[in-house]
Every structure is written in structure tokens, then in C-alpha cells.
Design goal:
By secondary structure, this protein is of the alpha+beta class. The chain has one domain: 2,3-Dihydroxybiphenyl 1,2-Dioxygenase, domain 1 (Roll), CATH 3.10.180.10. It is 19% helix and 35% strand. The chain is built from five helices and 18 strands. Strands 2-3-4-1-15-18-17-16 form an eight-stranded mixed β-sheet, with helices on one face. The chain is globular, with a radius of gyration of 18 Å. The protein starts with 9 loop residues before the first strand and ends with a strand. 38% of the residues are buried.
Length: 283
Amino acid sequence: MNFHRKPITFVSQVNLKVKNIKRSVKFYKEIIGLKVLEETERKAQLSADGKKVLLSIEQPSDVITKQNRTVGLFHFALLLPNRSDLGEFLKHILQVEYPLQGGADHLVSEALYLSDPDGNGIEIYCDRNPSEWVWKRNEVVMPSEELDVNDLLENIEGKEWSGLPVGTIVGHIHLHVSELKKNQEFYIKGLGFEVVSRYDNHAIFMSEGKYHHHVALNIWNGIGAPQPPINSVGLESFSLMIASEEKRNKIVTQLKNIGAFVKEEHGSIITADPSGNRIRLII
């Protein structure tokens, strides 16, 4: 099953604030392997296939350094089409000697973790076949085990690195929030996701259509973590692709019923979770 196609609601684009646009463009091109679709003095849009925007980065005029212990982005995740693509990416990272923050075998997927020059977290991963995922009591088994990097590197084609493959998409987003109860209500009762996994009482993973997760929330920056200043480096917003106008209207009604913030902005519907993470609802 394709978990990132209509009628499922999924994350389609991430929008970040950065401190130095030229430095960030260079990083996302040369280290991550995205292609620049558009670039101005303070903004750039990046893609894997040269058509669809996956990441938008912007340098606010009065931007300040990323603030610690706040709500916002933990990481955004780029999903690669094949396991060999992840091996190729790992080989590339080792060759350019860019520091990785870690890697993990989650059983549902294999992942590598790193940060951009501003400290925005990034996961690069590939999924295992959903037929291999283990479900217990309607929750998917998703631990963090040691990644077999040697096997990953042995199963590559050995071709010269040429960037992320065309089929790369945004697989999910993982957010810092100030608490879980109200934020969970927003994503479940408001946006229509369901909880598919939990890490004790400090992180939840949610999806539609029984994916292992489209959105994850954690309280690792502390209960009551504040929102960062609006001009801080970090997450500006992320976009959720909605299957139809009818479904989006239903979601808007659900959001209003729980008292969530909703407004129209430049033809888009904007909402925000109780921690202030902004979301664009697009069709």
C-alpha cells in the first residue's frame, strides 16, 4: 500500500527558517542531495525530482539562532524508495565526512540521523515491506535497535553519488510539543490521525491508513516547553496533503469543534497545534 498518496492524509512539504540561506542551500544540495527549483536572496525551494517541492527554506530578515528547549521541529524525515538508496546515501556521507548523529533499525524501517548547519534535525530512511511489520494490540512494534551499516553498505550498486533518487518524498515529521494530552487531541480528533505507537508516556506516533507514522510528538524538551521567537531558526510550518476539499472541510469543522486555531491565508488553510506548530492544509 502507498501510505503517501490520496486518500491518505500525509506530510508533503516542510518549511524551515535558517540563518544563512546560501550556506543552507549548499548543504541541502551537496550533503543531502536535493535539487534547487527556485532561489532568491532569502528563500529557496528544493526537490528530489526537479518538480515537486519537498523543502522550502527561508532566511528571515531578523533571524536569530535556534533556541534550545523549545517546542518545534525534532526532525523531518525523507523517505527513500529503496534500501540500496539508503546505502548509497550512507556511503556518500562517509566520503564527504559529514557527521552523523546516529542510525537505527526500527524494524519497520532503517534510518540515519543528522542535522543541518542550523541544528534542524533530519532523518533519511527507507521502509521495510509493510508485510514484515509486527502489530500488537493495534500498535506497531517500532524499537530502536542497532543499524547494520556493514550490510547496508554491501548492498549498494556502487554508482557515483548523484543526489537523492527521484522517488524521494517526505515520509514523516517528528515534533517537540509542550505536553501530550491536548496535542494528541488536536491530531486525533482534529486532523483525524490515530495513535499507532507509544514510547511510554513521553512520545506518541500517529498515522492514517496504518502507516508506522506520519506525525510523531514528544515532550523531550520538557513539559511546558515554550514556543520559540517567531524569528528563530527552526520550523516555520509543514504541509499536510488532504485528499479532497470535502475531506479538508470536514477536518476544518473538527478543528473548530475542539477550539483549534484555523484561518485562511493566501488561499491556504492554516492551523496550529496547541504547542504552536503551524500546519498548512492543502489539496
